[in-house]
Amino acid sequence: MRMIRFFIPAILWIILILVLCTLPGKDLPQVSFLDKIHFDKIVHFGLFAGIVVLICYGLYKSRQALSNLAIISVVILAGLYGLAIEFIQKYLVTSRSFDMYDVLFDTLGAIAGALVFKYWMNYQAKKA
Q1: Which of 28, 56, 75, 81 is 20 to 30 A distant from 108 in Cα terms?
Q2: Where's the VanZ-like domain (predicted)?
Q3: In this structure, is the dihedral angle defined by the CA atoms of residues 110, 115, 117 and 118, taken in order, positive or negative?
């Protein structure tokens, strides 16, 4: 039970993403400037980078080590979570649709999160 505490930030982050991504389309702010620069893709990128960083951090703290295979597995699971959310938006949420570019930026964000975490792990190893 003590190890679950390392995953609480990741669990809360995953729930936050689900809540934000399942808001009905009419509840989302419409700002034409943000639409022109595709700000939602930047948000997807950051949200999914956060998932990977937080899950990898929880795994690292609970095991005191983390393999490349574990990090790659987290990236794949994060990408699949993004894909699942898109299907939820398509079939279960009013005024929302499936967007493959969202899945792409979710996955790119997950990869970036893995790279950031890997950099942090290497930095921590050099400090020790």
Answers
A1: 28
A2: 36-118
A3: positive
Q: What is the pLDDT along the chain (128 residues), one digit of tens a residue?
A: 678 999 999 999 999 999 999 888 665 666 665 666 678 899 999 999 999 999 999 999 998 889 999 999 999 999 999 999 999 999 998 888 899 999 999 999 999 999 999 999 999 888 86
Structure tokens at 22: 């399942």
CA distance linking residue 50 with residue 76, whole number of Å = 14
Residue 85's identity, in one-letter code, is I
Cα distances from 67 to residues 49, 54, 92, 94, 114, in angstroms, run 18, 15, 37, 41, 12
Would you call 67 helix, strand, or coil by DSSP?
coil
Q: Which residues of 66-100 are buried (b: 16+ CB within 10 A; e: fewer)?
A: beeeebeebbeebbebbbebbeebeeeeeebeeee
Q: How far is CA 69 from the centre of its chain?
A: 18
